[in-house]
Amino acid sequence: MRALLINPWIYDFAAYDLWIRPLGLLRLAAGLRTAGWKVSLIDCLDRFHPLLREYPRRGGRNDLYGCGKFGKTEVEKPPEIAAVERRWYRYGIPAELFTRLAEKIPRPDLALVGSAMTYWYPGVREALRRVKETFPGTPAVLGGIYPRLCPGHARRFSGADAVCATAGELKALSVPLRLPGLAKLKVDPFSSPAFDLLSDTSALPLQTSRGCPFSCPYCASPLLDPEPVRRRPEEVFSEIAGMAEKYRVEDIAFYDDALLSGAETHINPLLKMIASSGLKIRLHSPNGLHARFLTAETAELMKAAGFTTIRLGLETSCPRRQRLEGNKVDDPAFRRALKNLQRAGFGLSGVGVYIMAGLPGQNLREVVETIEYVRDLGAEPFFDLYSPIPGTPHYARLEDEGVIGVDMDPLWQNNSIFYLRYRSFGPEDVRKIRQASSAGPTPPGRRKERSRS
Ligand code: B12
Ligand code: SF4
Fold this sequence. Notes:
The protein is an alpha/beta fold. Helices cover 32% and strands 16% of the residues. It has helices spanning 23-34, 95-104, 121-134, 145-149, 151-157, 174-177, 180-183, 221-224, 233-247, 267-277, 296-305, 319-324, 331-343, 364-376, 393-400, 427-437, and strands at 2-7, 10-12, 38-43, 72-75, 88-91, 110-113, 140-142, 162-163, 203-206, 209-210, 229-230, 251-254, 282-284, 289-290, 307-315, 351-357, 380-385. Strand 6 (110-113), helix 3 and strand 7 form a beta-alpha-beta unit. The protein is globular, with a radius of gyration of 22 Å. 42% of the residues are buried. Residues 441-446 have low confidence and may be disordered.
């Protein structure tokens, strides 16, 4: 049996490769191989495919630590967002290269398409359309974040033959798809990913846990992983050692929601193992770490193990909203975390702090005060525009308030544009926040807005 796995393009107003790798698909590939399947991957976000040399200005260069710009093509906006006065792009490999790559692959018995952000579904649809065009009759299954958060939309509009709306649903699809091989398939949610399918392995993702002990009303983590699970530190370390030996990895980006949760038995022993192994790797946490869990011991171990990119989740400095938005941090905990990092030898100007802007009920003043609070403490503020995720309490609240209608297309779940619908926090507020946030010094190559240009 042969499977073709596809990591689709990103369609967005802006996108940057901040360690974006198709971890879910790579795990699936490893599971399929264990079950005796042959697998191929078309990674539409590959910046290093050898054939990209034939296309001018198509990426292929890293800025820092394995991050870099995607190649892009301007495309027409769909009618749902046609009125937005910004250019819209398809990020990733040229569309024609997809078809060239697909035509080289022997006909697969199954196509598996992954997905990340819900509002990137046009890339999913385009990948499915092309795979069906090249391999008519091959069943195509869609999985990942988009169908898990928007199952109804994915079933109606993606073009997939089957949609996996839960984490472990693939096996159940064997009956409708009449693929007996799938019935025996057991994919370990933490099996070592098939990184050999990637063109470049100098920077790789790592997930040591799933889920989070908090339940913030704007976040999808409690929906995606209601029961947090942690891997054994020894098992994670052996995956890291394998990444270093087999793939010559230099940079590792953690994909955990709550990396520091239960630190004494989880991240601390892991960092000790890395520090004493002599491995030359840099560690990065593009997701916000929990300040509350950042003790002096954890900070010292982070330094010793090679932590390079540190982001802390603060969201707001307003004590009332801190309690309303999940109660995960407060002023003493945040100051303590910064002090611990500083004592461990991290320069605070390199510590990025995520701040939310445009949360329901939040006003401009609060956001600007939070930016100043972070800057006064010596760290670097990164603001993040709020966008609603279906199934979260805030999404329901905005529906009740009439900001979100039943027919709101997932394209509007994009944080680059959601505020355009939200009259109490409009474009003028966003302009002022951008101004406040860029007032301080920015090291070269760094941006003040989270993950976006
Ligand atoms: C790591 C991560 C990132 C990484 C990049 C990840 C990536 N590959 O794109 C970084 C830090 C860059 C990132 C950035 C952002 N992220 Co993010 N991120 C995550 C996180 C924590 C994990 C995602 C992940 O890769 N998990 C690991 C894999 C193994 O798990 P999985 O994808 O769930 O896959 C499982 C199943 O779905 C299945 N599966 C996966 N693929 C397939 C395919 C098939 C065919 C099948 C059958 C099964 C299957 O197998 C897996 C094992 O069970 C999630 C939260 C979460 N808990 O999931 C948020 C999340 C996806 N991010 C989110 C957001 C909002 C963002 C940002 C917009 C934040 C911001 N404001 O800037 C940016 C946007 C990125 C950009 N460049 O523009 C939201 C998504 C919202 C939405 N509307 O879709 C999430 C859900 C977090 C949240 N707050 O709720 N993110
Ligand atoms: S602490 Fe972070 S990951 Fe956990 S629920 Fe809140 S926002 Fe989500």
